[in-house]
């Protein structure tokens, strides 16, 4: 909130508060003159308000923020005493309106210095307490906002870093695949390069938003699977099914690819009897992802890596409390199941 608006709301609050107490005082004490009410509530209201802001704007920031508690207590007590003497001095100038108390037909005794001074101390303590509570509340709100902004910035930076890892990781694996094709002088090398360019176009130009259409993400997965089939000379066996309707659902981009990469990299893809099984089940608000692959004998202890660690962290940041990830690393098979609230 801008400074001008803060000042406006503070002034409006005090005007309303003083007006309310003038109205209440006039109705509760019919013998009090208008001059008495104005002096008591406007002049002394202004004095107490000045004490309020002395504590709010100067004493608390100067002393309490540096943890100078003893010095703050001394200065506060001194301010209460000084304000007490000052209020009594003004009271003597308007003794008939301040120090004398009217009843219906008689005039009370003049209030003693000691009695009046004690009452001013009580009022001063109340205003100091109110200013302390307000300052504490305002600082808490500001600190929460700052911490929230810092946390959002930290999360944004971490997400950007995690996303930046995906492209090099994917490109590294894909280039290895194409290199294998080129080394074998395969006729499918140009097709693989074209398929890779389509995939990279999606990753570079369509994944900049926080979420993308689920249909585009599924097409991206299909292109990746097609690229792997080319790599295996169409001898990669994968049972890929989508159950449910793809409508207007949105999903964080590049979230599912790590599971499929992992299956091709560490699993057995060229066994027709044990194909990679991939099932995606959809409804309007939920996605269930299931993938299982047979493990290579020489890769049984090396499953995972950057890809899966990356996706786990992204799930924590982007779908907190909205996902369930179950990874089962068994003797012969590796299974990943992800349930996600879109």
Q: C-alpha Rg, in Å?
A: 37 Å
Shape: rod-shaped
Order of helices and strands: HHHHHHEHEEHEEHEE
Number of separate helices: 9
Tell me what portion of residues adopts beta-strand conformation: 5-15%
- What strand order characterises the main sheet? 2-4-5-7-6
* Coarse structural class: alpha+beta
Number of strands: 7
Distance between the termini: 35 Å
Helix percent reads 55-70%
Folded structure, characterized:
This protein is an alpha+beta fold and 342 residues long. The protein is built from nine helices and seven strands. Strands 2-4-5-7-6 form a five-stranded mixed β-sheet, with helices on one face. Strand 6 and strand 7 (333-341) form a beta hairpin. Helix 3 (69-93) packs across helix 5, helix 5 (113-183) runs antiparallel to helix 6 and helix 6 (189-205) runs antiparallel to helix 7. The model has no long low-confidence stretch (mean pLDDT 79).
Label this structure with key terms.
rod-shaped, 9 helices, alpha+beta, single chain, 342 residues, five-stranded mixed sheet, 7 strands, two-stranded antiparallel sheet
SSE inventory with pairings:
Blueprint: H1 3-28, H2 34-64, H3 69-93, H4 95-98, H5 113-183, H6 189-205, E1 212-213, H7 214-231, E2 238-243, E3 250-251, H8 257-266, E4 276-282, E5 286-294, H9 306-318, E6 323-329, E7 333-341
Parallel strand pairs: 2-4
Antiparallel strand pairs: 1-3, 4-5, 5-7, 6-7
Helix pairs in contact: 1-2, 2-3, 2-5, 3-5, 5-6, 5-9, 6-7, 8-9
């Amino acid at each position: 909130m801008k400074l001008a608006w803060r000042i406006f709301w503070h002034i409006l609050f005090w005007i309303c508060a003083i007006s309310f107490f003038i109205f209440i005082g006039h109705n509760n004490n019919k013998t009090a003159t208008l001059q008495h009410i104005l002096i008591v509530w406007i002049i002394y209201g202004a004095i107490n308000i000045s004490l309020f802001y002395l504590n709010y704007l100067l004493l608390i920031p100067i002393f309490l923020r540096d943890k100078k508690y003893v010095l703050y207590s001394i200065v506060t007590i001194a301010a209460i005493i000084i304000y007490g003497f000052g209020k009594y001095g003004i009271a003597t100038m308007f003794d008939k309106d301040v120090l004398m108390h009217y009843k219906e037909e008689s005039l009370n005794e003049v209030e003693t210095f000691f009695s009046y001074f004690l009452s001013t101390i009580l009022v001063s303590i109340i205003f100091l307490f109110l200013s302390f509570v307000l300052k504490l509340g305002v600082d808490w709100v500001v600190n929460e906002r700052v911490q929230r902004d810092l946390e959002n910035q930290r999360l944004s930076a971490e997400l950007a870093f995690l996303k930046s890892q995906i492209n090099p990781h994917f490109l590294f694996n894909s280039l290895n695949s194409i290199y294998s094709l080129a080394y074998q002088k395969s006729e499918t090398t140009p097709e693989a390069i074209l398929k890779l360019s389509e995939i990279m176009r999606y990753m570079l130009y369509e994944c900049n938003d926080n979420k993308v259409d689920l249909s585009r993400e599924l097409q991206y997965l299909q292109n990746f699977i097609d690229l792997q089939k080319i790599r295996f000379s169409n001898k990669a066996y994968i049972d890929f099914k989508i159950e449910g309707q793809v409508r207007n659902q949105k999903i964080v981009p590049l979230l599912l690819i790590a599971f499929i990469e992992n299956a091709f990299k560490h699993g057995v893809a060229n066994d027709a009897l044990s194909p990679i099984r991939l099932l995606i089940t959809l409804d309007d608000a939920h996605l269930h992802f299931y993938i299982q692959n047979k493990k290579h004998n020489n890769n049984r202890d090396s499953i995972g890596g950057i890809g899966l660690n990356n996706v786990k962290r992204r799930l924590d940041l982007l779908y907190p409390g909205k996902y369930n990830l179950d990874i089962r690393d068994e003797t012969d098979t590796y299974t990943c199941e992800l349930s996600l609230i879109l």
